[in-house]
Amino acid sequence: MTVQDTYNTLKERLRDVVPDAELRIKAELAYEINRLKTERNAVILGHNYMEPALYYSIPDFVGDSLELSRKAAQTDKDIIIFCGVRFMAETAKILNPGKTVLLPAEKAGCSLAASITAEDVRILKSRFPGVPVVTYVNTYADVKAESDICCTSGNAASVVRSLESDLVIFLPDEYLARNVAAETGKRIVFPAKGDTEEDFQMIGWEGRCEVHERFTVEDIVNVRKQFPDVVVLAHPECSPEVVEASDFSGSTTAMERFVRESKAPRYLLLTECSMGDNVAAANPEKEMLRLCNIRCPHMNQITLEDTLEALRKTQYVIEVEESVRIRAARAVERMIAIG
């Protein structure tokens, strides 16, 4: 495929999403990345939150955290480039200790992952001995290592049910935990907030995603006033009130599938902005309302330019201490087995 072929492919998909001048520049970068990717026996994983020009040009696989974790576990390539954030690249390294894992940006973090430490988990475990710990995959490796099993937004409720335990610790996303508690019929408490209820079945933490916590019920009400037929989709990291006011809640992959398979004329996605752009590009016959002005500052650090430099220089190599990796791998592999 030539640079012109790459441009033509991007133009066909993104002509209503990305300006033409930008597409021409991005096509040149994408062409060189794909050339080097083959030369260096690399695989590129792209999260659903990547900017459209990157999302539709260089990844071998795209999806949410669970889908990309599966692909990372199955690859036979020498190099894994993870176009996402650090905890995702760490997960790929956890599953592929013998491979080189690259993150294109030096500091692509996550507010949610930063909200809890391994020591925080150990303190909770000492306070509630023997209680199984479910940790959202949006955490760093040392936190995963303190966990019994990981989960994603797509399989969180299934993971909790699989434990068949009367009491579960669920970390660190407060809103996801509240939504899972509602779905599984459990009463949740937050010890760090000073909750003193005696009748509870789930223990949560106060972490939040800096993107999803900003969506409000008022946003939904205002949009419905102007577009009564809109279908509203909310990520489970949104507040329970927002999820309740929406028509559908699910992982990014579930949201993409919902739009693709349903016949409503217009949609509102309450999640990271680039996700909405990518879904709009894949469904040109359907209208995506542009309420969103919220970009994840961490995902936004991953660019075609930096991905090319990562390949050229083998830079920003992800390492996980082996003793941590082994313990974290058990929790991640249990998650993948549940699906």
Keywords:
3 domains; globular; alpha/beta; Rossmann fold; 339 residues
Sequence of secondary-structure elements: HHEHEHEHEHEHEHEHEEHEHEHEHEHH
Rg (C-alpha, Å): 20 Å
How is the CATH topology of the largest domain named? Rossmann fold
Number of helices: 15
Could you name the CATH homologous superfamily of the largest domain? Answer: NadA-like
Second CATH tier, the architecture of the largest domain: 3-Layer(aba) Sandwich
Q: Strand count, sense and closure of the main sheet?
A: 5 strands, parallel
Portion in beta strands: 5-15%
Q: State the separation between the terminal residues, measured CA to CA.
A: 35 Å
For the largest sheet, list the strands in their spatial order.
6-5-7-9-8
Q: Given this structure, which CATH class of the largest domain is correct? A: Alpha Beta
Structural class designation: alpha/beta
Fold and architecture overview:
The chain is an alpha/beta fold and 339 residues long. It folds into three domains: 3-109 and 299-313, Rossmann fold; 113-208, 3-Layer(aba) Sandwich (Rossmann fold), CATH 3.40.50.10800; 212-288, NadA-like (Rossmann fold, 3-Layer(aba) Sandwich). It has 15 helices and 13 strands. The chain has helices at residues 3-14, 20-39, 52-55, 65-74, 86-95, 118-127, 141-145, 156-163, 174-184, 217-226, 240-245, 252-261, 273-282, 304-313, 322-338; strands at residues 42-47, 61-63, 79-83, 100-102, 133-136, 149-151, 168-171, 188-189, 202-203, 231-234, 248-249, 266-270, 287-288. Strands 6-5-7-9-8 form a five-stranded parallel beta sheet, with helices on both faces. A four-stranded parallel beta sheet has the order 2-1-3-4, sandwiched between helices.
